[in-house]
Amino acid sequence: xxxxxxxxxxxxxxxxxxxxxxxxxxxxxxxxxxxxxxxxxxxxxxxxxxxxxxxxxxxxxxxxxxxxxxxxxxxxxxxxxxxxxxxxxxxxxxxxxxxxxxxxxxxxxxxxxxxxxxxxxxxxxxxxxxxxxxxxxxxxxxxxxxxxxxxxxxxxxxxxxxxxxxxxxxxxxxxxxxxxxxxxxxxxxxxxxxxxxxxxxxxxxxxxxxxxxxxxxxxxxxxxxxxxxxxxxxxxxxxxxxxxxxxxxxxxxxxxxxxxxxxxxxxxxxxxxxxxxxxxxxxx
Length: 284
Known about the structure:
By secondary structure, the protein is mainly α. The chain has one domain (about 5-280): Orthogonal Bundle (Farnesyl Diphosphate Synthase), CATH 1.10.600. The chain contains 13 helices and no strands. Helix 4 (about 65-85) packs across helix 5 (about 90-100), helix 6 (about 105-120) runs antiparallel to helix 7 and helix 10 packs antiparallel against helix 11. It starts with 5 loop residues before the first helix and ends with a helix.
């Protein structure tokens, strides 16, 4: 590398460190999952997470500010960074590098930012809006990661698109169940179509759970076809969310409406250990 390129490389690596720090500070579970990926994937997945995390923060956290204006500026800055190949925002510089290296489609980014925009408005989610929101908020994030994992293998990408979408969908729906209380009281949202928070019962919960289980079942075959360096990290995330889902499934509806269900750290470590053991002995 020439000395001319050293400062830019230092800037890029510093920006990537910022995305890593964001991931570690906001999600211990996601950080654990990334650490079980092959090292070559780490920076790129941190960069994707940093981008989606900050967009989510705008709509969920910055209550005393003009969220719509902030999100609009974030969108504009994102596309300028991708177009020019540089940004003074470390999160966007990291993200544009990944987008440009792996040819991540603008449609995926558009859909994600559109779902973030949907969160700015109070609305009852009918079936169409529900699927539209889940696609943009979760499924496309899985597709961005899939672009990274497959490193340009277009045929395999097309083959694994639907299982990747199913996994993102399962994760998001589990999040919706887990966060029903805070979504309703803090943000005035109930994402599940046709569900009244005040009349959430066992039968409506069972319909949602059956739908989530179908997503998990569809996703698993795709996980098994991922490159070995990506498979274990994604499987860890799958196992973590499946554990959370099973825990929620055993809870009465009233309890879900009263508290946020969590997986204790010792249980997370057991899941991590099991994944690492499989990795070592190639059980996956």
